[in-house]
Amino acid sequence: MSETASKASPSTADDKLAIEIKAMHKWYGQFHVLKDINLSVRHGERIVICGPSGSGKSTMIRCINRLEEHQQGHIIVGGIELTDDLKKIDEIRREVGMCFQHFNLFPHLTVLQNCSLAPIWVRKMPKAKAEEVAMKYLERVKIPDQAHKFPGQLSGGQQQRVAIARSLCMSPKVMLFDEPTSALDPEMIKEVLDVMIELAEEGMTMLCVTHEMGFAKTVADRVIFMDEGQIVEENEPGEFFNNPQNDRTKLFLSQIL
Ligand code: ADP
Ligand code: MG
């Protein structure tokens, strides 16, 4: 499809893009939480989203797998536009993994069961195969020895690595992270960031809300700054950190760096 054709029709997919958000708005009741969000993410691109608390970062990434609904504009993931169509929502959720600040593991299931549940029930994988896949990813996040424990028996850093492994078991094309290290003690932050860095090096398309600016500098292709429901500034990390343009970005960076 030509560039012109894809521009002419806002809901036509561009297959070079993993995610396309166009003129997107969201309200919580009367409150206009996201205002004219435009963002294109290419396959394999790593994007870090930062900004003050309450600026709409979580809401924006939760819209990408329809944990929140947008009211205006377009969100297209892997060529599929998010609408009320439940089949499409399901299709998109299968391709998009998500890790939250509070791991959201099932407390009554073992680590292995947490990881194999969705492949068995959603992908219809035989149990033995799903457990084999789960062990492969638990090895990748360096906790195969914890497979038979329950989440409550693990440290925060280990639980977050389980949450990442659990997402990877579904072979996602895109991973969304919402402050995955914010609830962790400092000594555990690195073990989670190391896993995320490895994922990035393997070419995973990633959108990470994080205030880990070291991570942003080494891993991100682009850094996006949000404030009051808008994308205020975006740039490659070198320019973003050394030469911020917007006053609100400057203020934010001066407070966290
Ligand atoms: P961030 O992740 O950048 O801290 P959020 O996306 O969580 O910001 O929140 C953006 C704004 O929307 C905040 O003002 C927050 O209070 C508000 N908000 C978040 N979730 C809801 C909700 N479910 N209902 C109403 N307001 C909400
Ligand atoms: Mg948030």
TrEMBL record:
Q: What's in the keyword line of the UniProt record?
A: ATP-binding, Nucleotide-binding, Transport
The record's section on Pfam families has:
ABC_tran
Entry-linked SMART domains: AAA
Q: Where is the ABC transporter domain?
A: 19-253
**Record's keyword annotation contains Ribonucleoprotein:** no
- InterPro entries per record: AAA+_ATPase, ABC_ATPase_HisP-typ, ABC_transporter-like_ATP-bd, ABC_transporter-like_CS, MetN_ABC_transporter-like, P-loop_NTPase
The organism's superkingdom is given as Bacteria
* Single Gene Ontology MF annotation: ATP binding
Q: Which PROSITE patterns match?
A: ABC_TRANSPORTER_1, ABC_TRANSPORTER_2
Q: Which family does it belong to?
A: Belongs to the ABC transporter superfamily.
What protein is this chain from? Answer: General L-amino acid transport system ATP-binding protein
What is the organism of origin for this protein?
A: Varunaivibrio sulfuroxidans
Taxonomic placement: Bacteria, Pseudomonadati, Pseudomonadota, Alphaproteobacteria, Rhodospirillales
